[in-house]
Design goal:
This protein is mainly alpha-helical and 152 residues long. The chain folds into two domains: 76 residues, Arc Repressor Mutant, subunit A (Orthogonal Bundle), CATH 1.10.10; 51 residues, no CATH class. The chain has a two-stranded antiparallel sheet. It is globular. It comes from Streptomyces citrinus. This is Helix-turn-helix domain-containing protein.
Length: 152
């Protein structure tokens, strides 16, 4: 079971009571989510992560250690038995909707109209529909229809 990050193991939370801030503290740097993205896309070895991202070896080493220590990746012996590989934990796989939502935001706002970009498709080759948060009754939610209740 992955280690859960607590205040004791991460004493420098940007905003200790905010789940968004804690998540950004864990995976909000320039490279961590790209490593998670590539692990979701099948990367397993140090070499694969480096090739896919172009990240410097020393930075990749640090990010992999961080993601393992936070319980988002685990290291195991590859089926060949000759090297170690990195695999997503349940906590790492739970970031899938986050990565999809970032991708969809990027498709809408980070490309010029008609500019080519990769597309996430399901097992049948159909583009994945937009992720939209909904209330218990199925009504779409946004920043106008929700509020944060602060911790007491």
């Amino acid at each position: 079971m992955p280690r859960t990050t607590t205040r004791a193991s991460q004493p420098d939370w940007t905003d200790p009571d905010c789940p968004v801030a804690r998540t950004v503290d864990l995976v909000g740097d320039r490279w961590s989510l790209l490593v998670i993205r590539d692990a979701m896309d099948g990367a397993r070895s140090f070499t694969e992560f480096q090739r896919r991202t172009g990240i410097a070896r020393n930075i990749l080493t640090e990010r992999l250690r961080k993601l393992i220590s936070y319980g988002l990746l685990a290291q195991r012996t590859a089926p060949s038995g000759r090297r170690q590989e990195y695999v997503l934990t349940d906590a790492g796989r739970d970031l899938f909707p986050v990565v999809v939502t970032l991708r969809q935001w990027g498709q809408r706002h980070a490309f010029a109209p008609g500019e080519a970009h990769s597309t996430l498709v399901d097992e049948h080759g159909t583009p994945v529909p937009d992720i939209v948060p909904t209330g218990a009754d199925g009504t779409p939610l946004d920043s106008e229809t929700t509020r944060v209740e602060k911790a007491r």
